[in-house]
Amino acid sequence: MPVQIPASGVRLAGDLTVPPAARGLVMFAHGSGSSRHSPRNRQVASELQQASLATLLMDLLTQEEDAVDLRTAELRFDIALLARRLVAAIEWAAADSELKVLPIGCFGASTGAAAALIAAAELPNHVSAVVSRGGRPDLAGAALARVEAPTLLIVGGADPVVLQLNREALGEMRCEKELAIVPGATHLFEEPGALERVSTLARRWFEKHLRRRHHDDSSAA
User: Fold this and answer.
1) Phi and psi at residue 101, in whole multiples of 5°?
2) I want to staple 150 with a disulfide (CB 3.0 to 4.6 A). Which of 44, 76, 176, 216 is the partner?
3) Strand partners, 13
4) pTM of the full predicted structure?
5) pLDDT by residue (tens digit) across 158-179?
6) Could you list the residue range(s) of the whole structural domain that residue 60 is in?
7) How far is residue 34's CA from residue 181's CA, in Å, rounded to a whole number?
8) Is 128:116 a contact under the CB 8 Å cutoff?
């Protein structure tokens, strides 16, 4: 279902899918020139939907901003802007009559992973889990130490620079955390079976942590 998300004077386009008896909502933060139409993230989203998790694939840039970014590549690295947009989207979901009952997870790719981690640090009561695919968590800076949500960093084994950056970021984090390396995979996980492994890892992480958070909240009510 197409949705429009208000964020600091702009409206962001998103595709929301809510399966029957959804037990959580995963919000996708794209980065590095990608969009809600990313076939890689849509493949991961499909796996999550089959596990009864709602998904929101959204553009963190408007069409006009995206056109500028295609020429200059400057906005995709404006982590503060991306994080503010994601925070606005999380607050929008938390206020929605249908979505507010669902625990929220964030799935970030590339620079979107940094935005997801900053959003998790800013909204600890809303974000229950984070997964990064080939992400740049190092770009979250000081926010890393403030993240409370359990975080899974997935990196390709044949992506050495990003792998090292993820290892260093992992050392800065104080939450429940894990680094999963997909053997032989490069940055875009284009190798046979690599993206399927990412999807499985993400699904298991969100199933574990979103379900646990939802159970805790229900029992306390």
Assistant:
1) -80, -10
2) 176
3) 4
4) 0.91
5) 999 999 999 999 999 999 999 9
6) 2-220
7) 22
8) no
Q: Are 79 and 139 in contact (CB under 8 A)?
A: yes
Q: Which two tokens stand for residue 193?
A: 């079976």
- Take residue 34 and report the two structure tokens written for it: 């990608």
DSSP code at position 59:
-
What does the pLDDT look like over 41-71, one tens digit per residue?
899 999 999 999 999 999 888 888 777 767 7
3-state helix, strand, coil in the chain (%, to 5): 45, 20, 30
Say if residues 148 and 120 touch (Cβ distance below 8 Å).
yes
- 26: CATH: 3.40.50.1820
Beta strands 151-156 and 177-182 are parallel
Encoding tokens for residue 18?
């809510």
How many other C-beta atoms lie within 10 A of the C-beta of residue 104? Answer: 26
CB 148 within 8 A of CB 176: no
Backbone angles phi, psi at 179, to 5 degrees: -110, 120
pLDDT at 144: 98
The whole-angstrom separation of Cα 115 and Cα 211 is: 23
- Structural contact between residues 198 and 183, judged by C-beta atoms closer than 8 angstroms: no
SS3 144: helix
Split into its structural domains, the chain has a count of 1
Residue type at 62 in one-letter notation: T
